[in-house]
């Protein structure tokens, strides 16, 4: 009697590898399943987003790619987006990698795929790794793998322009059942804001006039890149901006229309010297979400005043941003208030202790425009 041997299928070994163009659709499916299983997206939209931001960026570095996790069947079951940015530290070139979004399917998550992906990323050749959209679970993983929380960047600030309008919009958004009531009360909010605005202007101390007349104009990547080396001398760690990267960044940020209109202005002297710029989204809820403020020394307050005036002209109820240590004094002088941004934590992992120390000590220029927060991948779902 002969026994027929069962045919045994050889399973592939699970592993992590770089994202390739052939993986884009599979990575998009992972994001779709993990983050919005109840709401199918427009076909190809999320895949196009991954292709542009993972494979076609000006700073694409094949040594520090976006990553996928393959299960034993050879299927993509996890994805970690990675972007690379050129930086300088004390004048020496270095590479910074930013992670996010980060997703694994439930069956892969049970096998530790998320930890494997993150460990592989943090062990890459980059000098510095960051993320600025982490939750508490992400923070736990980063710190277990040697990362650190940047506590000052976990704080935010707010400058109220129309307090009543901001409060009514916040209540309507937080408690949808009150939306109709807030709409009925809108005329009262406008009257209250006018009265409060007149009172605040009378009590607001006048800031010192700039030494020369300043002119506000639209952002120009060429002018920004040209002025950046002198504008950024105060920071030991700073991005190595060039015209190509800044033009790409502004174009990509303008595509994230779900956050609102992207608005940016630069400020220069009559002689043509650029002294700073600001960049923010004006959300549908009339909140100006600041992505980046840059200013030369002695012009921080003036750039903030131009920002607040622009947002007020456009009907914003409030201006909000992430706290940057070099802006603490100017923000205080402009009657801004701080708060804790619990849902968007900033984390880092550095190969050298002096890099981490520079970030914690406020000697680094790292803004929302340099991280993952602005990318708005959830809005592609």
Give a verbal description of the structure.
It is a single chain. Mean pLDDT is 87; it is low at 1-11. This protein is globular. The longest helix is centred in the middle third of the chain and has 18 residues, at 186-203. The protein has helices spanning 24-35, 45-55, 106-109, 113-122, 136-144, 163-174, 179-184, 186-203, 221-231, 243-255, 300-313, 328-333, 353-360, and strands at 15-18, 67-70, 76-89, 92-104, 128-134, 148-149, 155-160, 214-218, 237-239, 261-269, 274-282, 287-295, 318-322, 337-340, 345-350. It is built from 13 helices and 15 strands. With 381 residues, the protein is an alpha+beta fold. It starts with 14 loop residues before the first strand and ends in a 21-residue tail after the last helix. Strand 2 (67-70) and strand 3 form a beta hairpin. The strands form 2 sheets. Strands 1, 2, 3, 4, 5, 6, 9 and 15 form an 8-stranded mixed β-sheet that branches. Strands 8-10-11-12-13-7-14 form a 7-stranded mixed β-sheet, with helices on both faces. Pfam families: Acetyltransf_9 (PF13527). This is N-acetyltransferase domain-containing protein.
* Relevant CATH superfamily of the largest domain: Gcn5-related N-acetyltransferase (GNAT)
The biggest sheet amounts to: 8 strands, mixed
What amount of the residues lies in strands? 25-35%
Q: What's the number of domains?
A: 2
What would CATH call the architecture of the largest domain? 3-Layer(aba) Sandwich
Q: How many individual helices?
A: 13
Kindly identify the CATH topology of the largest domain.
Answer: Aminopeptidase
Q: What overall form do the CA principal axes indicate?
A: globular
Instruction: Tell me the total number of β-strands.
Output: 15
Low-confidence stretches: 1-11
Order of helices and strands: EHHEEEHHEHEEHHHEHEHEEEHEHEEH
Organism: Methylocaldum szegediense
InterPro entries: Acyl_CoA_acyltransferase (IPR016181), GNAT_dom (IPR000182)
Pfam family, one: Acetyltransf_9
Protein name: N-acetyltransferase domain-containing protein
């Amino acid at each position: 009697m002969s026994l027929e041997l069962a045919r045994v299928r050889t399973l592939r070994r699970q592993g992590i590898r770089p994202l390739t163009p052939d993986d884009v659709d599979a990575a998009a499916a992972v994001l779709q399943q993990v983050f919005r299983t109840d709401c199918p997206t427009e076909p190809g939209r999320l895949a196009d987003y991954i292709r542009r931001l993972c494979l076609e960026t000006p700073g694409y570095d094949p040594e520090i790619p976006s990553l996928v996790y393959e299960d034993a069947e050879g299927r993509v079951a996890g994805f970690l987006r990675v972007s690379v940015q050129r930086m300088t530290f004390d004048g020496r070139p270095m590479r910074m990698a930013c992670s996010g979004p980060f997703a694994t399917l439930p069956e892969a998550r049970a096998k530790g795929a998320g930890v494997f992906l993150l460990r592989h990323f943090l062990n890459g050749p980059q000098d510095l790794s960051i993320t600025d959209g982490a939750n508490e679970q992400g923070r736990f993983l980063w710190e277990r793998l040697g990362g650190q929380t940047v506590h000052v960047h976990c704080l935010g600030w707010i400058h109220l322009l129309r307090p009543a309008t901001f409060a009514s919009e916040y209540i309507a958004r937080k408690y949808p059942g009150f939306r109709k009531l807030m709409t009925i009360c809108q005329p009262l909010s406008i009257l209250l804001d006018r009265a409060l605005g007149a009172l605040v202007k009378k009590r607001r101390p006048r800031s010192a006039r700039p030494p020369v007349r300043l002119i506000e104009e639209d952002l120009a990547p060429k002018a920004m890149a040209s002025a950046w080396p002198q504008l950024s001398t105060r920071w030991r760690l700073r991005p190595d901006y060039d015209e190509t990267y800044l033009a790409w960044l502004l174009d990509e940020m303008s595509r994230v229309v779900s956050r609102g209109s992207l608005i940016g202005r630069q400020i220069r002297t009559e002689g043509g010297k650029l002294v700073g710029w600001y960049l923010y989204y004006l959300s549908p809820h009339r909140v100006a979400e600041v992505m980046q403020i840059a200013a030369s020394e002695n012009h921080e307050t003036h750039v903030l005043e131009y920002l607040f005036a622009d947002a007020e002209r456009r009907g914003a109820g409030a201006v909000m941003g992430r706290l940057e240590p070099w802006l603490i004094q100017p923000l205080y002088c402009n009657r801004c208030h701080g708060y804790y941004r619990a849902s968007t934590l900033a984390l880092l992992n550095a190969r050298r202790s002096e890099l981490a120390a520079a970030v914690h000590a406020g000697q680094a220029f790292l803004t929302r425009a340099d991280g993952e927060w602005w990318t708005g991948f959830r809005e592609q779902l």
